[in-house]
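Exercise: predict the structure of this protein bound to fe (iii) ion.
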Amino acid sequence: MTGDDGADRASDTVHGLPVRRAALTPEEQAQLLADLREIARVAPPFSPMTGWGKPMSVRITAAGRFCWFSDRKGYRYIEAHPQTGAPFPPIPALALRLWRGFETRADPDCCLINQYREGARMGLHQDRDEADFSFPVVSISLGDPALFRIGGTERKSPTRSFWLHSGDAMALMGESRLAFHGIDRIKFGESALLRGGGRLNLTLRRVAPVDT
Ligand code: MD3
Ligand code: FE
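Solution:
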């Protein structure tokens, strides 16, 4: 039985997606946040350029081997920070623990960190630059609630929306792996986790193929 919010509590799915509400305790959220602050210190967040030559409202950095990057030449995964040239720091242990709750064949090689400040949003898009779509993308939310929108594999497919809260984890896999998705808005200043408000989202991915 599903309610208006699409939630199916018996099987822990929302609109068919596996969602683990409060997968991290408040103490674990604070620990993960501390890890992210250390990552941001050595790999400063930056604003990628959109195809139109305008910077995205979301700032990004990463942990693990790869970081997503975009400039006027197009978008791709990079292995060195665009400003410092340094490799990205290791993926935090708590993030790996959540990934392993969804996928055990191999660990992720990219933990993209998206930072949403007041007014930031992310337009509807697909994530299709990874080698093997049989691996999920695992999303972890921290800070202010975000209205997440997910559709189908075509831009014109109907969409559904639900809220993601601090500590929630979600896996995009199977049918939904190539679905169009985005963040429409943030309830800025609602969560006390981040000083000054805002939202951080981690997406764990497998960018390179797994050696057989
Ligand atoms: C559905 N991030 O980093 S997380 C992204 O909240 C991204 O920062 C959003 O979209 C954020 O690419 C949404 C949920 C998410 C992430 C990856 C997906 C949903 C996805 C990949 C395929 C399908
Ligand atoms: Fe995405």
